[in-house]
Amino acid sequence: MQLGSVRSADGRVRAVANVDGLGFVPTGDLGAGFADDLFGHLLRDDLHQLRAAVARRAAGQPVTEPFDAPYRHPRKILGIGLNYHAHASDLGAQAPRSSPASFLKGDHTIIGPEEGIRVPSGIGRVTAEAELALVIGKTCYQVGVEEAWDYVAAVTAVLDQTAEEVLLENPRYLTRVKNYPTFFSFGPYLMTLDEARDRIGDLDGLVVKTMHNGAVHREAPVRDMIFSPAELLSFHSHVMPLYPGDLLSTGTPGAIAIAPGDEVSCELVGLMKLTNPVVGGDAGK
Fold it and tell me: Does position 283 have pLDDT exceeding 70, yes or no?
């Protein structure tokens, strides 16, 4: 099942779902007991019931509004740095070996598909990084690697931005360089884990592409990660609890410098593609 949010011309945001390619339908129209917002579905852990209800609504009229960010206010966004060997070499850094390098981002950084990524003035080179993200489906705390996927509701595409020139001054500036407004796009929708596996099989073979102005800048399969998604989730669950709707972005195969007028994309091959334009000026959030 695919789950997203759409925004109407009057600014109303509604959760929508799609099963078997039949078109997205509003979840709030499926009867009593279903939320009208996607984050609410994750909090209530009702995706199995929702899928059945969407399948029964196959004859309904699909929505046509553009996708918004799937939701805007997760409790946390957890990012991973240098999780592919090639990206570490981009920064002239040594990839971590004993444990993953991670950081947190605020929800003020979130934008949706086709929204502008803003490059703030005075911070130098900014990069965009395509990533696979895990969407937590139930509270996850102190879980093992073998059971980690049981806590994942869905996957989604991410474009994670970095003020790279500032980061190269001092790696301790990581929180600062990751938290400018518009520095985290995700979507255009979530795909439940079962559908992702039905489409491509083992997620180790999923190819993540960083694209710049329509061309592939860097691509790599998930199996080339230094720490697998399950290892990342298990490791961080022993540091902090992860809650429904939290996002764990698993690192990029390659970052690309961006400037106003560019277009960048994250393609999860066989699953989805997320695209954002790059614009100038500071975001007024």
Answer: no
- Give the end-to-end CA distance of the chain in Å, rounded to a whole number: 33
- Which three-class secondary structure state does DSSP give residue 127? strand
The C-alpha torsion from 68 through 72 and 78 to 79, rounded to 10°, is 40
Q: Are 273 and 266 in contact (CB under 8 A)?
A: yes
Q: Please, which residues bridge with residue 273 across strands?
A: 267
Kindly state the average pLDDT of the residues 181-191. 98
Residue 31 near residue 56, CB atoms below 8 Å:
no
pTM of the model: 0.94
Q: Please report which residue ranges of the chain form alpha helices under DSSP H.
A: 38-44, 47-56, 85-90, 164-169, 174-178, 193-200, 229-237
pLDDT 10s digits, 239-263 = 999 999 999 999 999 999 999 999 9
**Contact (CB, 8 A) for 4 and 67:** yes
- Sequence letter at residue 20: D
CB of 31 within 8 A of CB of 17? no
CA distance 231 to 238: 11
As a whole number of angstroms, the distance between CA 61 and CA 22 comes to 10
Tens of pLDDT along 119-135?
A: 999 999 999 999 999 99
Distances (CA, A) of 264 to 109, 152, 164: 17, 27, 16
